[in-house]
Amino acid sequence: MKIRPKLSKLSPWLAWLIGLGVVIAAGVGAGLIVFWKGLWITHLTDLIPWGLWITIDLSSIAVSAGAFSLCAAVYLLGLKRFQPVARTATFIGLIGYSMALLTLLMDIGRPDRFWYAVVYWNKHSLLWEVTMCVTLYLTVLVLESLPIFAQFEWLKMRWPKLAEKMSHVHHYAPYLAVIGLGLSMLHQSSLGAVYGVLKARPFWYRPDISVLFIISAVAGGMALTVFASMLSARLTRRASVDDNLLDRVAYFIGWTLVLYLYFRFWDALSMTYTYQPGRTEGLQLLTQGPLSFNFWVGEILLGIVTPMILLLYRPTRTSQLWRMVALALVVGGVVAYRWDTNISGLMIVLSYLPGEPTVEYAHYVPSLIEILSGAGVVAFGLLAFSLGVRYLKVVNHSLTVEEHENRKVEAKKPAPA
Amino acid sequence: MSNPKVDRRDFLKITAIGVTALAGAQVIRRAEASEPTPSGGRQWAMVVDQSLCNGCGYCVMACRAHNDVSPEITWNPVLEAGQVGDKKIYLPRPCMQCSQAPCVDVCPVKASYYRPDGIVMIDYDRCIGCRYCEVACPYGARAFNWKAFTEQNPAVPEWGQPEVARRPRGVVEKCAFCYQRIDRGLALGMTPGVDPDATPACVVVCPVGARFFGDLNDPGSNVSKLLKARTSYRLRADMGTGPRVYYLSATEENA
Amino acid sequence: MSKLERLIIAVMFALLAAGVTLAAAQAQTPQPPQPTNSITGDSCVACHKDIYDTWQGGAHGQSLTDPVFAEAWNAQGKPGACLVCHATGYDPATGELKAEGVVCTACHSPIPTNHPTDNMPIDASPNLCGRCHSDPRFVTENWKLSAHYQRSMTCSVCHDPHSAGMKSVAGAINTRADASDLCANCHKGVMQNFPTSKHAEAGVTCVNCHLGFNVGTTDITDFVSAHKAPDHSFVPTLATCNKCHANQMHAPGESVAAAAIAIEESGGTPTPLPTPVATPIPLVTSQPAPVSPAGFAGLAGLLGLAVGMVLSPWLERLYRRMNTGRMNTTGRKK
Question: Is the CB of residue C231 less than 8 Å from the CB of residue C211?
Answer without folding.
Answer: yes
